[in-house]
Amino acid sequence: MAAERSPACLQTSKKNPAKVPKRIHKAEREKVKREHLNELFLELAGALELTEQNSGKASVLGETTRVVKDMIDH
């Protein structure tokens, strides 16, 4: 009966040390996603030419909202 395991059971088997747990892959994907978002925020802050060097994400979004509203009004 042991040979008739489902694929899901095989994925969680600890007998194969070459396999990396899914949570590690998820953590790596999340890290890449955070890094990408941080790069986009830096790019947006650069496009806005913010004077404060330590502009947080909330500041960048607030300034972006203000600029877009001004552009829509004109």
From TrEMBL:
InterPro entries: bHLH_dom (IPR011598), bHLH_IRO3 (IPR057075), HLH_DNA-bd_sf (IPR036638)
This protein's GO CC annotations: nucleus
Location of this chain's protein in the cell: Nucleus
Cleavable signal peptide: none
Record keywords, A-Z: DNA-binding, Nucleus, Transcription, Transcription regulation
Keyword Ribosomal protein: no
Region described as Disordered: 1-23
MF terms (GO), sorted A to Z: DNA binding; protein dimerization activity
Chief place where the protein resides: nucleus
Protein name: Transcription factor bHLH family
Naturally occurring in which organism (per UniProt): Helianthus annuus (Common sunflower)
